Fold this protein.
Amino acid sequence: MSIERTIDKLEEQLDYANRYLSDLRGEIEEQLQEANDQIDTLNTTIEELEEEAEKADTQIQELIYQNSMLQLELTEVTGQLIHMRYELDISRKGV
């Protein structure tokens, strides 16, 4: 009888170990799925941010171009004003 009890106890311990490993496997699978979901979310966020960055870069390039054009116009107007002032000074001195 002693051997039978020992075998029964060993079977109980094996059943317990199997249940424990099964539970552990389930927890690991859940955590792995959660991690995969988070990775998917982060990848989507990265893609969205990259698209926004590209749009922002395009806008920046447009603003740089507009700034250059305004600087050119300012230079032209400044040149015209200098010329007008020069002519005004000449006309005052000639009077």
Notes: The chain is about 100% helix and 0% strand. The chain has a mean pLDDT of 95. Residues 54 and 60 are 10 Å apart (CA to CA). Residues 2-94 form the longest helix (93 residues).
